[in-house]
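To: structure subgroup
Subject: Chain for Friday's discussion

All,

I'm putting the inputs and outputs inline so they're searchable in the archive.
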Amino acid sequence: MNSIANIKNLLEALEKTREDEVDCGETFDHLDVYAEIVARGEDPSELLPLVKQHLEICNCCHQELEALVRILEGDLDR
């Protein structure tokens, strides 16, 4: 990825920051519940809005969520 794209991604992440955020550790503590809600086809944003916000800006946590959802859905080939 080139430096302009990196700067753009950083600015987009900064734009989404909030005063009441959770970090990766706190997100990971709730990720199993979040993944179960997603796997059921429901929207977890009302129940866990800060986790949702963190997942929108943290690629590592988002990838963990995707892996958990795939496991819960039984789709391990993706």
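Points worth raising on Friday:
The mean pLDDT is 87.
The CA atoms of residues 39 and 73 lie 6 Å apart.

D.
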